[in-house]
Amino acid sequence: PDPPPGGNPAPNPASSPDADKILEAIHQQGNAVRDLKSKKAAKDEITSAVQLLLKLKSDYKALTGKDAPPGGKAPSSEPVKTMPDTSVTPEQLETKIKEQGDKVRSAKGSGASKDEIQSLVNDLLKLKADYKTLTGNDPPGAPQQSSKQKKKEKSTDCDSALIPLL
User: How many Cα atoms occupy the beta-carbon half-sphere of 161 within 13 Å?
Assistant: First the structure.
């Protein structure tokens, strides 16, 4: 395909920082419009916010050649979004996983809201998925149900074996 007028081919939306910034702005502006509508703001105020949202969507389409995804965020099924950052080493991911796990435990211990905790858990799960994609293995320290169940079975077997001896 020929480059668009101006001589440069359209940038790949998945790799364009400008496209990412516009998507984030679309997301934020969409939230602002919903907030204004829920507060029953003045019609001209809502119209102004919607016009800005439409301009952002138009800018995104002009930059990428595609309509902005609903909500302003790229769908999670895009391969680019599910691939881990290859510049990160497994050791760095292990450190991030540990730190994120600490954040989750801290939030649970301090009585944080369910939404806050869920957001932290989602981030932790993404890090773990990135680690597994990068290395092919579960992160170290990840709970393995089968070994826990085996331990329980062994302790139960030992306990039942001791009872007749008493």
Answer: 6
